[in-house]
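Dear colleagues,

As part of the handover before I leave the project, I'm documenting each prediction I ran so the next person doesn't have to rerun anything. This entry is a single chain, and its sequence is reproduced below.
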Amino acid sequence: MSRSMSLSQLLPDMALPRDSVITGLVMDSRAVRPGDAFVAIAGFGTHGLAFAEQARARGAAVVLFEPPAPAEFPTPA
């Protein structure tokens, strides 16, 4: 059974520059396999985007990330 899906299926409300087939979602750049989507999130010490090039070198089809929240956005204490 294939567990792959297109990026447009994963993110149906996004305007995408191209559609890619995604074979997995991975948050650890060291675990990326060809075709995976690398999900780069903010950590305690660094942001996952710092590892985006490593993920791409390991075969990530795409890198998914959120832009930083605006400074005026309330955050929990």
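Residues 22-65 form a domain with the Udp-n-acetylmuramoylalanyl-d-glutamate--2,6- Diaminopimelate Ligase; Chain: A, domain 1 fold (CATH 3.40.1390.10). Strands lie at 5-6, 21-22, 24-26, 36-40, 62-65.

All the best with the project,
I.
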